[in-house]
Automatic annotation (TrEMBL):
One of its GO terms (molecular function) is metal ion binding. GO terms for cellular component: cytosol. It holds the Pfam family MoCF_biosynth. CDD domains: MoeA. It comes from the Bacteria. Belongs to the MoeA family. Its EC number is 2.10.1.1. It is an enzyme of class 2 (transferase). Its cofactor is Mg(2+). This is Molybdopterin molybdenumtransferase. Pathway: Cofactor biosynthesis; molybdopterin biosynthesis.
Length: 398
């Protein structure tokens, strides 16, 4: 019995675990996923400071037209300790510098004019608190600022660095072995002879693994015979994850599943009610996930996207292994066979406040040009057959 699209993905996600933890420097941490929460060792900002270049004043003195002697200057990087805005005075201050004692507002240069070398006239009087960034207003000391499972983007790297960290604990990236199977395959760079085709799946899947945060290990081509398959697949089982392409449909020579079983892989399912990607198989060897994807490049890439990518994200500890699901309006009618979820290649475009999903063209599995044109996948539920223009369908961007 083929599995439903949803239950296949659930079963896969239930059977993969985050990999062990390692320390990486912040310089290499973008795209990695935090294995442990991070607490702030100090407040941010660390002290009250000026948001503008201007003058630190007391509002009571800084009325319109007031002239105040400038008694000191606090530059960025200066501690400001010992400097005070005494009644009737002003202190020149630069953006980011600590505000001095006595000051309750900063007047930007533009709201003042100099009437003598060290004498400033207030043109626009400030309100209490103007242009002062308060200690801890952004981040409080001891608060949990990043949770385990967070994917580190430049914004998170910025925060971690400003909290004084130089490295973080993240889950290891999965090493993903890729084996392409088929007698007809020749490696890229070779002109195929009669009946031969280029092993494009190897590099395509390696690229997809990289984008998902994994480290691809390209193991080349296995011929459609037991010995060749056994050698390559056994080598692939040394990695954290094994992906093979082709050799899983009902053909006489589709030996991949047979050989995997001989190598100790326990098959959890074969065949999913999804188009494309029906012959996809999934198994485990000592807890390591093994994906057998169909050979058609479109099927291989779409099944990677829907089934392998979420698993690789979870192995890296991602709290949200699935891409965000959105809703889009179908631009035209779609007819499909009931009983299989259709992964429709679509062009997504915003039209006013609507996100429109239009079929990218010929949806046959052998057509790669419509995958090139697509920037989204619409997931059309198995039980339905006909969809009308204007219906809302779940989509995600690819
Ligand atoms: N009698 C049946 N025939 C087929 C069935 C079925 O259920 N019963 N399923 C069809 C479906 S759906 C698919 S998808 C394919 C999947 O077959 P395999 O995974 O066994 O793959 P192959 O038949 O070896 O190849 C399919 C197609 O893809 C090309 N290919 C294979 N490897 C690569 C590669 N590394 N790089 C680029 N292209 C590759 C191959 O030449 C074929 O054109 O089976 C249907 N048949
Ligand atoms: O399931 Mo196959 O992947 O439709 O072409």
């Amino acid at each position: 019995m083929p599995r439903s699209f949803e239950s296949a993905r659930e079963l896969i996600l239930d059977n993969v675990r985050p990999l062990p933890v390692e320390q990486v420097s912040l310089a290499e941490a973008v795209g990695r996923i935090l294995a442990e929460p991070v607490c702030a060792p100090w407040d941010l900002p660390m002290w009250d400071n000026s948001a503008m270049d201007g003058f630190a004043v007391r509002c009571a003195d800084a009325v319109a037209g007031a002239e105040l002697p400038v008694v000191a200057t606090i530059a960025a990087g200066a501690s400001g300790v010992g400097v005070e805005v005494r009644p009737g005075t002003a202190v020149r201050i630069l953006t980011g510098a600590p505000t001095p004692a006595g000051c309750d507002a900063v007047v930007p240069y533009e709201a003042t004019e100099m009437v003598a070398p060290e004498r400033v006239r207030i043109l626009e009087p400030p309100q209490v608190g103007d242009h002062i960034r308060l200690r801890g207003e952004d981040i409080r000391a001891d608060s949990e600022v990043l949770h385990a499972g967070t994917c580190l983007r430049p914004a998170e790297i910025n925060l971690l660095a400003s909290l004084g960290l130089t490295g973080v604990r993240v889950h290891r990236r999965p090493r993903v072995a890729i084996v392409s199977t088929g007698d007809e395959l020749v490696e890229p760079g070779t002109v195929p002879g009669p009946g031969q085709i280029v092993n494009s799946n190897g590099l395509a899947l390696a690229a997809a693994v990289q984008q998902a945060g994994g480290e691809p290990l390209l193991l080349g081509i296995a011929a459609d015979d037991r010995d060749s398959l056994r050698r390559r697949l056994a080598e692939g089982l040394e990695a954290d994850v094994l992906i093979s392409s082709a050799g899983v449909s009902a053909g006489d020579r589709d030996l991949v599943r047979v050989v995997l079983e001989e190598l100790g892989v326990r098959q959890l399912f074969w065949k999913i009610d999804v188009k494309p990607g029906r012959p996809t198989a999934f198994g485990l060897r000592d807890g390591k996930p093994v994906f057998s994807l169909p050979g058609n490049p479109v099927s291989a890439l779409l099944t990677f996207e829907e089934f392998v990518r979420p698993a690789l994200r979870r192995m890296q500890g991602d709290a949200q292994p699935m891409r965000p699901m959105r809703h889009a309006t179908l631009a035209g009618p779609v007819v499909k066979k009931p009983g299989r979820t259709l992964l429709l290649r679509v062009v997504l475009r915003q039209e006013g406040d609507r996100l429109l999903a239009e079929s990218s063209g010929d949806q046959n599995t052998g057509i790669t040009s419509t995958l090139l044109r697509a920037n989204g996948i619409a997931i059309l539920p198995a039980e339905r057959g006909a969809f009308e223009a204007g219906e809302q369908v779940p989509v995600h961007e690819i």
